[in-house]
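**Paired protein data**
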Amino acid sequence: MKNIKYLVWLSVILTTVISGCADLLEPAIQNNRDLESSYNEPRFAQGLIINGYARIPRNGWSFNDMATDDAVSNNENNAFFNLAGGQWAADNNPLNQWANSKAAIQYLNLMIVASDSVTFTVGNPMLDRMFADRIKGEAYGLRALFMYHLLQSHGGMADGQLLGVQIMDNPEDLNSEFNRPRNTFEECMQQLYADVERARSLLPLDFENIPSENQVPEKYRALGANRNDYNRIFGEDARQLLSGRIAMAIKAQAALMAASPAFSQGNTTTWVDAANYAGQFLQLNGGVAGISPTGLTWYSNVAEINNLGGGINQSEILWRTSLGGVSSNLEAQHFPPTQFGNGLLNPSQNLVDAFPSANGYPITHPNSNYNPSNPYAGRDPRLNLYVVVNGSTAGPNSAVINTAADGGTNDGFNRVEVSTRTGYYMRKLLRQDVNLNPNSVNGQLHVMPRIRYTEMYLIYAEAANEAFGPTGTGSFGFSAYDVIKAIRARAGVGIDNGDAYLESIKNDKDAMRTLIRNERRLELCFEGFRFWDIRRWDLDLTEPARGWRIQNNVGQVVNVQNRVFGNHMKYGPVPLGELLKYNALKQNTGW
């Protein structure tokens, strides 16, 4: 190992992450250190994997929903406003993951190579072995995660073949061959799956302290490790690092994408595979019984959030970012103007119409009891949890929000620059107990999940419906129907009539598919899923975003923003700069 000479381009990790502009292949001379420098500097070595964590795309909200039929931005300079309006290009791509994820993989590959040679402790080879296993496992799991994001952002059809990205399974140095063609999508998926299994072989299911000596894995007992040694490396102090359970979730996420219509050509991952990977994960959570009863409002469950010390998660959240301190930035972006916010994300009428009536029927169904003259009455309770409609309350004093064009406040339709363009404001994700009044600003703790359990249940429901039919259970004892029934019941939908609509379609695979997709749309709205879902489902990208304009107490549906997407845009582009540098790369068709 010590004969391997790779350059490590790492000066101060946080500086690299924050600046984001240092070229990995042309580091400043004073920052060049070869890999052997890390062997006796554990903090330097661990900086490699810290860089991987810092580059995870879901370290903050993207709000790419504003480029879909679910929402628009009220800021014409917003990247997603412009993307949805036809300004998405190979050299202008706010969804670009090429540089970020490839840089992360480079650092992770360096960590994998170095891990077996780093002295993490003073004179304790046994603990060094355990540290090396954990960090290597984390690196493999993170490498799978970044491959997933690369395929999601840049995988696509080129010359009739479904391509992924260039696989990087070893560190690159200045002598590496960079002008390489893209690997196939299938090859990239197999690399991802292999990395997940490597991670699972090295990591515990969860980072928790074990109470007895006989729970120390045999491979470490053979080295002389005791319970305290194990807990030091794999115990609760490591919570929120990538665990075996998280690696299983990443595998299920990637398999759902690969099995979907836009990516299934020339790819061996099937709906059965996706259902099995998600089902295996959910069995560990107790199946349908494990659905969190507080999963609807995890972002505002004050008692839960205030007791999240020590890396503990709410029952709804598998993996999250660190809490940080109290803040009010999210509310400042999205609160209505009368609550001193900028109202950035405006939910669409399209999304509002997707919420069924409280009895479970779609509002277009004759049994829905929907009243166009009183459109928000008797609706799915999630509508008022997630969207501020006309007459809703918001903010720390529960002020009534009037979105009418002639309502007399800046909350009204297109009244000022920061007013709503659709007649709606976002409520989900926001802490209504944040006060933005300049005379008495106060923030609150916020939770930013990377993976929620509800997402995992919806992955299973979608894949199981395709693989086994609506009521088929595979080998797991629960079906797509079971999952959707439980999720809707948690939301308060169909409670009074036994969810008659769901019962009416429980044997109709196509109708169940439509319902599952709609439940995913509602449950995960504003969390950055809709943009990718529309594309992997190979659906129409150009449905205009509509709004609800109220004037003289009369509401009217209006077209707010057309979506300008070509059919080829179900796949993202390879960055133009990469194509100009490397002629072996192929661009996705149409870009």
Notes: Confidence is low (pLDDT under 50) at residues 1-30. The two ends are 43 Å apart (CA to CA).
